[in-house]
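Hey forum,

I'm writing up a methods section and want to include a predicted complex as supplementary material. The small molecule is flavin-adenine dinucleotide. I've pasted the protein sequence and the SMILES. Can someone with a working setup run it? I'll credit the forum in the acknowledgements.
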Amino acid sequence: MTGTEERDVVLVGGGVISATLGVLLSELEPSWTITVVERLDAAGLESSSAWNNAGTGHAGLCEFNYTPRRPDGTVDPTSAVEIGEQFLTSLHLWAQLTERGLLGAPGDFIRSVPHMGFGRGADGVAYLRARWAALADHPLFAGQEFSDDPAVLARWLPLVFDQRPAGEPVAATRSAQGTDVDFGVLTRRLLDVLAGRGADVRFGQEVRALRRHGDRWHLDVRDRRTGARRRLRTPYVFVGAGGGTLPLLQSARVPEVRSHGVFPISGQFLRTDRPELVAAHGAKLYGHAAPGAPPISVPHLDRRVVDGREHLLFGPFAAFSPRFLTQGRLTDLVRSVRPGNLPTLLAAARDNRALMAYLVRQLRQTGEDKIAALAEFVPSVRAEDWELVTAGQRVQVLKTADGRGSMVGFGTELLTSAGGSLAALLGASPGASTAAATMVDVLAASFPGRMAGWAPQLDELAPAAGTVRGWDADRLAATVASARAVLQLTPGGDPA
Ligand SMILES: Cc1cc2nc3c(=O)[nH]c(=O)nc-3n(C[C@H](O)[C@H](O)[C@H](O)COP(=O)(O)OP(=O)(O)OC[C@H]3O[C@@H](n4cnc5c(N)ncnc54)[C@H](O)[C@@H]3O)c2cc1C
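Reply by user p_vandermeer:
Happy to help. Structure tokens for the complex are below, copy them as they are.
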């Protein structure tokens, strides 16, 4: 082990979450020494990589899981508005940095793609209409359209309505405010900003152990190529290691996670780049989740642009791998089981029967079953046009609450320990889209004494979701419009 290096801040992991926090801290405290430690040879190669997630800029425009139905048939818009506010924080930050010439051409990481909801059957159409009505008056959802007119639907969604049998009631909503984001490119641009400000961004180095000694965190870092070991010492550590987060917190014996368990699920998508199919579908179209299915499994058919090439993506389908990172270890799952979390794992299996049954059904799906699921969206589908690709790993967090085991990791959860000197993000979606708002929350939880001083700068750069909530309709609309103009998010027309 070589000598110990002192840092003001250490960020573990080079994904979009750490990159966002690093840039915010470098704005607020330019004199602080910041080190980012990433185990792979480049940034944004795990969950933040373009093909490891669906690239949806989650803003509540089309995802039904944010708009539950009330018993009286109306729809509760609260969560959709919250996600919309959080996404605006991200949009605002990206626009501010772009305006200052720091993120390069915005079209490399964000594009305008309409977000659409797809309601099927009389009940699905009634839900979609109620959803549209519940959101119609809110400025973040301005301009959202609803239609159940077959001619309009065929114009909005040519691929979806090609060869669709008549007779089933169908409807769609359409928002021109939707986006497709390449979080991998964004991550690399953010870390370039950080490195350009003098931060020490290290690749190919893995944090192997984390320990608290006195008022400092000690991190043992190993170079994966040479095996050389170094130690970092810091008063503040953020663990943004994606699937690697819980194992590191376990190694640090963080009491808050003693009984937490984890369960890895990987995602798969069907993908095509056939030009005639891509040309006939220019949206992200979200449908209803299957009974018992978790929100992450809501089926969607998306136009994606990655590395300048256009594709369609359909899924996700759940698959199983015992690794916690796509480039993790086969032993990850086994090594995570401890006496302290075994009861949680057993209780989660016992108390989530519908979810377990859904996962087993997903894992047993054949290639033909997956094409049949796609045929619900694209009746004219030909299997030979599509390939099955494996996306990122989700490490779902399992907890026990009131004696019941629950899988809570379908959202993201902010964890702090040792008086806020350690912070970590657990769980998956919609983490990338809401990274800026969540990292402002991390700052508030970790540095409560500094927030009053930082507030004016944060309000300019990345206003907290709570701040956004206080804005009137005119301010909201103006902020959205100016961010979209800077990011060159000009809605395109319908597909030909
Ligand atoms: C199938 C799927 C679809 C998704 N779709 C969307 C979507 O459409 N929209 C959206 O907003 N979000 C989506 N998400 C969620 C989104 O991808 C994540 O919230 C986000 O990428 C998480 O970023 P992160 O920085 O926390 O993790 P990551 O990008 O995984 O970064 C963590 C980094 O830490 C590194 N690391 C791990 N352990 C160590 C260690 N010990 N030492 C050093 N480095 C370490 C890893 O190599 C990795 O680079 C999706 C996720 C999945 C799995």
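Some notes you might quote in the supplement: Residues 259-409 form one domain. The first strand starts at residue 4 and ends at 6.
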